[in-house]
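ugh ok fine here u go
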Amino acid sequence: VWIFGYGSLVWRPGFEFTSRKVGFIRGYSRRFWPGRVVTLLEDCAACTWGVAYEVRGEQIPASLEYLNMREAVLGGYDTKLVKFHPQEKDAEEPILALVYIATPQNPSYLGPASEEDIAAQIIVSSGCAGHNIEYLLRLADFMRYFCPQAEDKHLFSIEEALISILPCLYYTEESLEET
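structure:
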């Protein structure tokens, strides 16, 4: 079984796997809509880069149980099979992979907003796995280092907006401590 990760799974899968491949799926774009972490939105002209993990034998039930808890425990997630295209030049046919996608029924689903508004929400948001700033910056770093040829305007625009806001917050906190 292959599992496609396009958010925090790219750097922290949290389950044992046999192998991993960087690549993309077509027909979806990545959006910071549920709780200001990412989900996929159907978009026939887009492709989303991430990592596919191969799980075998005893890894299969353990990884699916973990992902069902991590991704779907609150409800509002769909699981789909997608065609994953490995980045490797000698890759054969696309691989069928399982992917978890948050839906508008997800209790944390916030939907569309400007990049600046999303960045401002990310700054004040955190979850069980850490702060959303780390989530955004790690995802942007993954894209830069492993998929430099790929474009993700939404991701990089939010990163840029966040970086432009952060110095103001840092200065404000220092000013408050001095007074």
